[in-house]
Amino acid sequence: MSLQSLTGRDFLRMADLSPSQITDLLQVASDLKSGVLTPTCSKILGLLFYKASTRTRVSFSVAMYQLGGQVIDLNPSVTQVGRGEPLSDTARVLDRYLDILAIRTFKQGDVESFANYCDIPIINALTDLEHPCQVLADLLTIQECFGGLAGQTVTFLGDGNNVAHSLMIGCAMMGMKVRVATPVEYKPDPAIVSSAQELAVQGAEIVITEDPIAAVEGSQVLYTDVWASMGQEDLAASRIPIFQPYQINRSLLEKADSEAIVLHCLPAHRGEEITEDVIESSQSKVWDQAENRMHAQKALMACLLGMID
């Protein structure tokens, strides 16, 4: 395995892992899920979340408890970070108390600053730029459904947001074809697209398009997210007519591969980015995907903490 080199490392971007490390990490996640691996530790995970969370908070907490560790919820509203304590001071103090820290915040630069000031592993549990932990769970789910990743076609529809960014990079590194279909003014960050293209291995393909129908044709995976991310709620109503053509509905799903699955990182606005009948259909793997957040993050923490030989 290539995982020993992850001990003590940070996980801030999808590109912090190599293709072989992703492959091995997904195998560890599968082994943890099945009970083949049962590592234990007495480590302490800190959760510093500046944004609301259900799946990320609960999945990290349960994962660490199942590994035998403990969790401290560092809610900014009841700690000094919410009263203006400098990030550098908070980081250096937490580094003395914790074994690993997961941060959910707005600026990518904040998790990078924590990594600069801390010796313990820092995990990006979501920023406005990337959501790499989500994509580890996505890849695990796709692998479970199709038996492998290379050659599969994934279509992301909607806003070219943090999930789309990490998904492009993750798919490119695993030899997958990824299509991102968005309205013209909501395309993913060009720098992320360039990074994904540079990291792409043989067989990978990255397509950015405004045509949702062409994007889903023959695709094995249809993926969407809310049309207005956290912090953009006041824009949600105005975006509905712009994004309506990108809704995953029965008509669009029928243009994909006959065995296609549907993913959504949740929470879902049913009737907006995805219809009720699709998210509740047999092709929906949304709940498996949500469960896999726990397994993927458990594997990630076990590797960063040096628990996997």
UniProtKB/TrEMBL annotation:
What SUPFAM superfamilies is this protein classified in?
Answer: Aspartate/ornithine carbamoyltransferase (SSF53671)
According to its UniProt entry, this protein's organism is Spirulina subsalsa FACHB-351
Q: Which family does it belong to?
A: Belongs to the aspartate/ornithine carbamoyltransferase superfamily. OTCase family.
The residues that the entry says bind carbamoyl phosphate are S53, T54, R55, T56, Q80, R104, H131, P132, C133, Q134, C265, L266, R293
Molecular function terms, GO-annotated: ornithine carbamoyltransferase activity
- The lineage's top-level taxon is Bacteria
Pathway assigned to this chain's UniProt record: Amino-acid biosynthesis; L-arginine biosynthesis; L-arginine from L-ornithine and carbamoyl phosphate: step 1/3
PROSITE patterns on file:
CARBAMOYLTRANSFERASE
**What PANTHER family has UniProt attached to this entry?**
ORNITHINE CARBAMOYLTRANSFERASE, MITOCHONDRIAL, ORNITHINE TRANSCARBAMYLASE, MITOCHONDRIAL
**A Pfam family per the record:** OTCace_N
Enzyme class (EC, first level): transferase
- Indicate the segments forming the Aspartate/ornithine carbamoyltransferase Asp/Orn-binding domain, all copies: 151-303
Q: Where does L-ornithine bind?
A: N162, D225, S229, M230
- Which Gene3D superfamilies does the UniProt record give? Aspartate/ornithine carbamoyltransferase
The EC designation for this entry is: 2.1.3.3
The main location class comes to cytoplasm
Q: Where in the cell is it found?
A: Cytoplasm
Alphabetical keyword list: Amino-acid biosynthesis, Arginine biosynthesis, Cytoplasm, Transferase
Record-annotated Aspartate/ornithine carbamoyltransferase carbamoyl-P binding domain positions: 9-144
The name of this protein is Ornithine carbamoyltransferase
Q: Which InterPro entries match?
A: Asp/Orn_carbamoyltranf_P-bd, Asp/Orn_carbamoylTrfase, Asp/Orn_carbamoylTrfase_sf, Asp_carbamoyltransf_Asp/Orn-bd, Orn/put_carbamltrans, OTCase_ArgI
Which reaction is this enzyme known to catalyze?
A: carbamoyl phosphate + L-ornithine = L-citrulline + phosphate + H(+)
